[in-house]
Amino acid sequence: MPELSYRDAVVRGIAQEMARDPDVVFLGEDVAKAGGVFKATVGLYEQFGPLRVRDTPISEQAILGAAMGAAMTGLKPIAEIMFSDFFAVCFDYIANEFPKSRYMSNGQTKCPLVVRTGNGAGSRFGAQHSQSVENWCMMIPGLKVVAPSTPRDVIGLLAAAVRDPDPVIFLEHKSLYATKGEVPDGEIVDTLGTAKIVRPGKDCTIIALALMVSRALEAAEKLKAEHGIDCEVIDVRSLVPLDTQTILGSVAKTHRLFSVEENPRLCGWGAEIVSIVADEAFYDLDGPPVRITTPHIPLPAADILEDIVLPTPGRIVDTVRRSLGS
Amino acid sequence: MATIRDRAPGPAGSGLNDDIGEQKRLALYRSQVRLREAEQRAFDLFLQNLVKGTSHLSLGQEAIAAGFAEAMVKGDLSFCTYRGHAHTLARGVPVEKVLGELMQRDNGLMRGKGGSMHLTSEEHGVMGSYAIIGAHLPIACGAAWRAQYKGDKDVSVCFFGDGTTNIGAFHEALNFAAVWKLPVIFVCENNLYMEYTPIGDVTAVPHPAADRASAYGLERIVIDGNDADECYRTAQKAFAKARAGAGPSLIECMTYRHSGHSRADPAKYRPEGELERWKLRDPIKIYRERLKQFGVSDAAIEAIDASVRKEVDDATEACKAAPPPPLDILTTDVYADGGWAWRN
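ok -> structure tokens follow
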């Protein structure tokens, strides 16, 4: 199977949907002529032209507001917010406008749009360009929230997001842009709200998202090789809708649960899943669910500091091993 | 510092310029009276504890809503603020639907799920009323972008108050609309007070909207917002410009609200005599006199007034008789599948 980078998968995913549907339009800062600051939109302007791929001013409220107005009246916009940290300057649209208009209007208003954004740490950018903000979005009724970990999932989940009738926050991990993975030729369309068991196992369940998936997998291989612990790793992929059945089914099999989360500890997505498991699968558990997270601090810039703050394969191995008492 | 408040408007009358025409003139009058009667009724029902929650009335500002709505054609889109009853009604939404929403009944426009601040009737082109200041200016830009992209001829009109001119989204939207030459019209209803504070006390320029227009390459337009004919004429020009692909307009309409900011506000911050001075230029009073100047009989005017009152009376009775919304709508329409499921 041919290989593709996560970055090029973004381009291919957007292009696939724009070629399919002339109502799909794309706007953001530096996305058109410059091809995006992460080079994840290179060539779209040349392929689809200036009416469909549009550079905007540095006006995040205008970007998201315009996407909403276009979505309400018949287009299927993809809007880019360069860094997910910038959600804070246009959060009205994310928290108050996109997700509430349908409900408040008793079903009259539609809002089929996708907000793509560069999320996550690892680039030594410091506290305002490195955050994982999935939990900012997950808490809002009316939104859908997706975070792919592989190039193939980027294309498939982006296609599903564009075709979805609800507003979808699409979190691309900045540290994954250069990674590569196998991607089949032809159209790829995935399904929102589906988690994926990326490594089957019987001794414990590790749930992870985006950049943390590969770290969980690396830890699982070490745990197997060095400690004989057979971990099942689940890529959650979609926080809303949340595939609780896959997670609960895994816990019923392994009887232990670990989450690996890049977001700061308080109110991280793993806390919600742990709460669901505690409610609905308490008697399946042989021990307490354990959350492996970034500590509750702003992210530091220096590489030596940033590297120890995120969950690492080593920290996952140690935590799982100690928790399972081996 | 002299503020715009010191420049009280002059006596009524704009001469007998008959560019409006009899039919449109009567429609403008009827619309203004309808907005006045419906909003006055909303206030009365509030005093009877039948209108719940908050409400923000446009009493005294009817000429703007009527003038712009009468210049719209089917398909044009209105984006309103929480002070949106008048703009919603002016697009032809039945009074019963609006009062029903204010009274939180099942016959309300959104069956009580939105409330006074979020009136929406897409079938009438009312694309929502937005309660976060400035939020809807970029949204109106997006609807206008769709029209531009698809070659549709409709125009998006965005109404907002003077207080909106000091929030970031106003400036982002103005620049965005101007750079993209979008078919959108921004209408500032300058009623001299943001909420409780005079807009002149917190704004660096005398005209909070118009004096910013040049920053976005737009014409500086200030009009008498209490004269429905002037609103209508100005709107027509802006619509023609937008439909011709010549881009957005920003129009500042000088007006005055007769009531407080919201139902909770007795408006005691106003200087003595200010309200009385403005009431001399009540838009409906002005327009009734103009109809007479054009030879419309007292009886014809009375007939319009009576038919409007009947619509409002009938709507009131229908709303009083309507049940509250059923509890099963609580979880509908969170997502497009009609439900609220966030997990399997």
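Strands of chain B lie at 77-81, 126-130, 156-161, 184-190, 222-224, 249-254.
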